Task: structure prediction
Amino acid sequence: MAAAVSVSAAAGGDRHCAARPLYDAGQEDWGQAEVQEPEKDVGLEEPSISVDQRRVDEELPALSAEEIACRLERTRREFYNRRKILIKNLPADVSNQEVHELLSDYDLKYCFVDKYKGTAFVTLLNGEQAQSAIKKFHRHVLREREISVQLQPTDALLCIANLPQAFSQQQFEELVRPFGNLERCFLVHSERTGHSKGYGFAEYMKKDSAARAKSELLGKQLGSRMLYVHWTEAGSLTYPMLHSRCLCIDRLPRGLLNVQDLQQILSDTYAPIFCQVGPAPISSVPYLH
Result:
């Protein structure tokens, strides 16, 4: 059994609930439910990894201030590295060469002009160039037409959650890279400790690559953890919102049957604004709220 819980403040300040067994909270029948061997559904198997083993696996060393700053900066840089721009309202007879000439101060990696729609899809070297081009050419007049320049919307961004906290950036890249070419890939780190918060984002160049990754990674077992994967709307995701307000709590006592009991226990530490209990894995519960 597992639960999703949202708190009222983002976790940038790293306020958190200490790991402790919920059945110590005065519900004697919960402890009994943990001791007894639960009746398993046909066709379902649960990983036989103990809570103690998870604690051993995820004992993390303290990081230096320099390493913490380095990890946070990498996440920030990768988050803003959206290098694809969309140019609209181009003249009907605009050519690929004319768009190249317009953007001659930048490094074009890809350019496709749709003459029927007066639109150009352009990939530049990095996010800094994309932001510079938007600032310079948005509402620029080209042959008596005011063009629009903005970041391209993406439908290929995934959030992969419930990763082992010891998971490194390299391991995360190795996890998501087999499914297709990546546009962006980064873990979210604690601003206090510098360690991974257990989730990250992967944006693919093609949606079918992202769909394949979601299909393969959803429910995948990594050590003592089972991965949750969901689509993310890039346009509504801001840098401060990377710090999730939603906690996924698994390995709940079998005797915990309703949301009210869980809310009462958690309120001793930090009152949740949303709480949902369901059988694990909760594949349909968003990790960010």
In short: The first strand starts at residue 2 and ends at 6.
